[in-house]
């Protein structure tokens, strides 16, 4: 018992860690529940809207079918008397021949419930179906007659599919021929819509479960970190760690926000526009297919496929830009060389990169900052400058290191030496300020104005030669 008490006894640091962990777990659990509820509610609204739009499209399609059918025999019905059996037989023959797809057909009932036309289910013809209901007890023929007496309307019920013999949800649209006391209509099965909605709900539930798993893993990892810290730190170290943790957390948040902003711009300006084009091409193809223009739908489908290929290329480029492997594996020089080569190949803009061998190497923060600034500058040149030639020069000197990016574009609106309020230039300014460096922008407006971006880092960010763990690598790269 004494050994067990010794095992479960907690030190002061562990107790503090436990006190810190409990609110963390409670807060994360509350956030997880709230996020789950909102995600499910939002997804359900979107699914319901999708279902409504699909059903409305089916209804509109049905109404067009019935309208076209009615136009097909209007010249007979308009001239016939109420008891003209010859005209009725002609119209019945016309409607019997109007079958489409695997399950589509027109049906006719009189106001007494007798079936007159049912080409795909002939066992219904010449029989009275007044009082007929589906498996859920929903009236069918009686509702048809009621809607027809009112003029027209839609009705949803369960019906046997002619192609499979299985019962499925159907939506029918009927109109009334009041002179003949006929119900004329057609229906379409919506089991594909039901399956689509069910799959969407299942996918949402799967995403919610994955989110719970991720949150649970994060909570477990966070609790373990808290307890490990409590076992290693005393009060004085803990106070120091708290101060450093606040500073580090703020820096992480700032870095995250900067990266999210860049990725958001990439998605909005690149992939979003491409996907809009894909959607337009597919929608165009769908409309052509619905009109039976199979040949005309081929061109928009090809365009949609091409746009999707472009979107895939953009996603790969964004993924590579998030963290270039060359920066960690080879250093800043090769990473910038790869960046400029990729920029030249992608845009067709003539791009040159030059550097010199540093006596001292840049520290990790400086390498990342210079790479991101070069990346941001090339993005701005591609989108806004209209330049045909770009040069990037990186070199070290007795005061530190300098990177100069020059283009022959149209320039920008900015005061000498002061960056503009654009998001990209502001990100450059913030990055270099964190390293106690300086950013200068020299630009002149006009067709041949050009822009120069000069970034300087102080000598404090260059490592002495003896700290270089890889002496065979080029310094500064």
Q: Which labels suit this protein?
A:
477 residues, alpha+beta, six-stranded antiparallel sheet, 13 strands, disordered C terminus
Question: Describe it for me?
Answer:
The protein is elongated, with a radius of gyration of 36 Å. It contains eleven helices and 13 strands. The chain is an alpha+beta fold and 477 residues long. Residues 416-421 and 467-477 have low confidence and may be disordered. The strands form three sheets. Strands 1, 2, 3, 4, 5 and 6 form a six-stranded antiparallel beta sheet that branches. A five-stranded mixed beta sheet has the order 7-9-10-12-11, covered by helices on one side. A two-stranded antiparallel ribbon has the order 8-13. Helices cover 58% and strands 17% of the residues. It has helices spanning 2-8, 12-77, 85-97, 141-150, 191-232, 235-290, 294-322, 325-329, 332-347, 364-385, 423-434; strands spanning 99-100, 104-110, 115-117, 152-160, 167-177, 182-189, 350-355, 361-362, 389-397, 400-407, 438-443, 451-458, 462-463.
What is the residue-averaged pLDDT?
Answer: 79
Write down the overall geometry: elongated
The radius of gyration over CA amounts to: 36 Å
Number of strands: 13
Query: Roughly how many Å apart are the termini?
Result: 62 Å
List the total number of helices: 11
Order of helices and strands: HHHEEEHEEEHHHHHEEHEEHEEE
Which runs of at least 5 residues are low in confidence (pLDDT < 50)? 416-421, 467-477
| Structural classification | alpha+beta
Biggest beta sheet attributes: 6 strands, antiparallel
The percentage of residues in β strands lies in 15-25%
What percent of the residues sit in helical stretches (DSSP H or I)? 55-70%
